[in-house]
Specification:
It is built from 20 helices and 21 strands. By secondary structure, the protein is α+β, with helices and mostly antiparallel strands.
């Protein structure tokens, strides 16, 4: 690895910090890397006063659905500023103090809006190093989902989990809620005895009889990676560096499902350098979790919809693990550059899966992703600004930028670069990139500059030939997009043609098909299907009773489109019990296309909305024009 002198010493200091795992002033100083990019989604003032460490001390009150306590913010006043400005949303601020002796501080709450919350402006001194905020969260805090026992796998105890991305950390912790600010943190959380508390930090593997847990996160992270979960949770090790947390009733099944995690870790390290976060554990959440996974450092949050029992959906774990390099280690400075997080991660996920299962497997993943991108671009419009990698999300919720464009167009851009410069050279570049910018932020402009200097050797003609600016700042899919071809999917298409020509579905050659074969099969069935044809396919392949969430989702979407009512009871159960937005949004969108479907959607939603996480129900509210 070749590093210039400044980069070498920066990297060496970071390695020493991580290996020591301390939270002293030396480490806190290392978090600061110069000026912070202005973030339109934050009220905070990190270029004047920067938060370097959090001391989180909270009690969990399930009866009132509230967290209450205090958070201490260790700050550096870089400009003798008179105020520290934090982001909050739906927090009841009781008092604020300064210093270890807790002298009362003046504070003011600014104007609030539904997306960004409001600024909390605190009067400080040039020498202020500690600000402590006493507060209580709201039962409706958007990051927090409070589940009654009957919405958990065990059915005996309540459950709480957070989802801080993109700008929801401010709904449970007063902070500088921007990916441009990194901080270490410690935590002390008190809950009911018999429950376990986990955070995106070093975690216990056994329950505390007193219900009190302490945490340490020595590596600096952005606020969206702050995470908390509380419930009846058991732990099972799956290797020297990894383990699974889950409801006791499913922890063994989850441990089996994710049994290849250690192989993924070693594969990623071989490609892109050391895993720098200590342990890599996975927490399987209740079904209402709005995403497939969330890459909280040291503790990936995962949906139970990836537990079919055959390890066929573990690419999700490869994806969340990949964030340990792209996103968690090198982070987009603002949400306008979300692609620097998810595009890189999607690319790395597929490299991990290729190393473990071969190029043929990776090509199926890539083609399914390309299909998703094409559908997204068609829906948004080829000239839509939202089909750019670098976005302009000013005045909008940053969740609006979390589309397949960031994931799939971003991954294709990196694949294009790999194909043009060669894999060996490209891998060395990425390895160096993650080393050089570890625990720092990145922008599109900065990445292009680094690309020019370290991959193209300053060759402007190369940049122009590969249409770098068009990929990042242009709309649609550039014409030098890599060609994605899957020989396995050609076999699938051949079987579809045979079926269309009269071969009975049960006679088709499907032995050995993976989840990806079946998804391509369902997605590429004829646009017009009769009830008889739907029934024939269902009888042959048992789609309606599939235990694979991806296959079932694809089939249910088809069932709505073709009014295959035999699947409606399963559809209703799916919509009533699963909270993953990736599944729910397209199904509700398909239902509202007809009057019959809209009535069904409204009936189901009325009964199910309170089971969904706020991130999910806010999306479905818009689809159904729902008003409370």
């Amino acid at each position: 690895m070749q590093l210039n002198p400044r980069s070498f010493w920066t990297y060496l200091i970071l390695v020493i910090i991580v290996s020591i795992g301390c939270t002293n002033k030396t480490q806190l100083e290392s978090v600061e890397t110069g000026s912070i990019v202005n973030d339109v989604h934050s009220f905070s003032n990190p270029n004047e006063v920067i938060v370097q460490h959090l001391d989180i001390n909270l009690h969990v009150n399930f009866a009132e659905k509230k967290l209450f306590g205090k958070t201490g913010l260790h700050v550096k006043n870089k400009s003798n500023a008179a105020n520290l400005i934090l982001d909050i949303r739906d927090l009841d601020i009781q008092r604020v103090t300064l210093g270890d002796d807790e002298k009362p501080a003046t504070f003011e709450l600014g104007k609030s809006d539904s997306v960004h919350g409001q600024p909390l402006t605190i009067g400080i001194n040039p020498t202020t190093e500690l600000v402590t905020v006493y507060y209580t969260t709201s039962p409706d805090g958007a990051a927090l989902q409070w589940l009654p026992p009957n919405q958990t796998a065990g059915g005996q105890h309540p459950f709480l989990f957070t989802q801080s991305q993109a700008i929801l950390a401010r709904t449970w912790i007063p902070c500088q809620d921007t990916p441009g600010v990194r901080m270490t943190y410690s935590g002390r959380i008190k809950t009911d005895s018999g429950l376990m508390v986990l955070m995106s930090a070093k975690n216990a593997v056994k329950k505390s009889p007193q219900g009190t847990y302490e945490f340490e996160m020595p590596q600096p992270i952005p606020s969206y990676l702050l995470a908390l979960a509380v419930g009846d949770i058991a732990y099972k090790s799956i290797g020297p560096h990894s383990g699974v947390y889950a409801d006791p009733s499913i922890v063994v099944a989850a441990a089996y499902e994710f049994g290849n995690t250690e192989d993924m870790i070693s594969t990623a390290e071989k490609l892109y350098g050391p895993y720098r976060w200590g342990k890599y554990d996975i927490l399987v959440l209740p079904p209402s979790f709005p995403f497939g996974g969330m890459e909280n450092p040291r503790l990936t949050f995962a949906t139970p919809t990836v537990l079919p029992g055959d390890r066929s959906l573990t690419s999700l774990i490869a994806h969340e693990l990949a964030h340990s390099w792209s996103g968690n280690l090198v982070t987009n400075a603002t949400w306008d550059d979300f692609w620097l997080n998810e595009g890189f991660t999607t690319y790395i996920e597929r490299r991990i899966m290729e190393e473990l299962y071969g190029r043929v497997y990776e090509e199926m993943l890539a083609e399914l992703g390309f299909q998703d991108l094409q559908e997204e671009v068609e829906e948004l419009g080829e000239n839509s600004p939202d089909t750019r990698l670098h976005l302009d999300l000013k005045g909008r919720n940053p969740d609006d930028g979390m589309t397949d464009v960031a994931y799939e167009k971003g991954a294709l851009f990196l694949r294009m670069l790999e194909e043009n410069v060669g894999r060996e050279k490209w891998d060395a570049f990425l390895h160096k990139y993650f080393d050089e910018f570890a625990f720092q932020t990145m922008t599109s402009e900065k990445f292009v500059d680094y690309l020019m200097a370290n991959l193209f050797g300053g060759d402007v003609q190369k940049k122009q030939a590969l249409k770098i600016d068009e990929w990042i700042y242009g709309t649609g899919i550039p014409d030098n997009c890599p060609k994605i071809e899957s020989k396995e999917f050609e076999k699938v298409e051949n079987q579809i043609r045979k079926w269309e020509e009269g071969t009975p579905a049960r006679m088709l050659e499907t032995k050995g098909w993976t989840t990806h074969h079946w998804l391509h099969f369902i997605r590429n069935l004829p646009d017009s299907l009769s009830q008889k044809q739907m029934a024939e396919l269902d009888a042959a392949f048992d789609f309606t009773q599939s235990t694979n969430s991806e296959i079932l989702f694809a089939w249910l979407k088809l069932a709505i489109r073709h009014k295959y009512r035999r699947a409606y009871p399963v559809l209703e159960n799916f919509l009533s019990t699963i909270g993953r937005r990736k599944f729910l949004e397209p199904l509700y969108e398909e239902l509202v296309k007809t009057e019959e479907g809209k009535k069904m959607a409204l009936r189901i939603y009325q009964q199910s909305r309170n089971r969904y996480h706020p991130i999910t129900y806010q999306t479905i509210d818009e689809i159904l024009h729902w008003k409370n």
